[in-house]
Structure to design on (115 residues):
């Protein structure tokens, strides 16, 4: 039986999904207000985790998504529309990634894609 080594506390620094940032700090990092973060949360673009005390906590990944929505809002796009655009961009990126994986897999097996 092998024993797994315990996770190092510093491993969380490398984890893009670790909810390390409070609402105030998150808003400061992306140059916006806590109200903006609440709005993108209400639009279900990002869902922050909650601390034991009920405070919102954001990950670096969530902040990158919120920052993209902020760029669109700064260009005049309404918050709800910006959130929908970011969601669609993310879905397109994932579909393209899966499509490329399928193409590589088909090429490696000698099959034509879709065959």
């Amino acid at each position: 039986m092998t024993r797994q080594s315990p996770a190092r506390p510093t491993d969380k620094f490398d984890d893009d999904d670790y909810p390390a940032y409070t609402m105030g700090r998150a808003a400061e990092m992306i140059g916006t207000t806590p109200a903006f973060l609440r709005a993108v949360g209400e639009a279900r673009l990002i869902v922050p985790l909650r601390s034991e005390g009920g405070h919102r906590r954001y990950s670096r990944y969530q902040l990158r998504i919120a920052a993209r929505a902020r760029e669109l809002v700064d260009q005049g796009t309404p918050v709800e529309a910006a959130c929908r655009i970011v969601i669609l961009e993310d879905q397109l990126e994932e579909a393209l990634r899966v499509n490329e994986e399928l193409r590589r897999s088909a090429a490696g097996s000698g099959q034509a894609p879709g065959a």
Q: What stands out?
A: Confidence is low (pLDDT under 50) at residues 1-5. Residues 16-109 form a domain with the Multidrug-efflux Transporter Regulator; Chain: A; Domain 2 fold (CATH 1.10.1660.10).
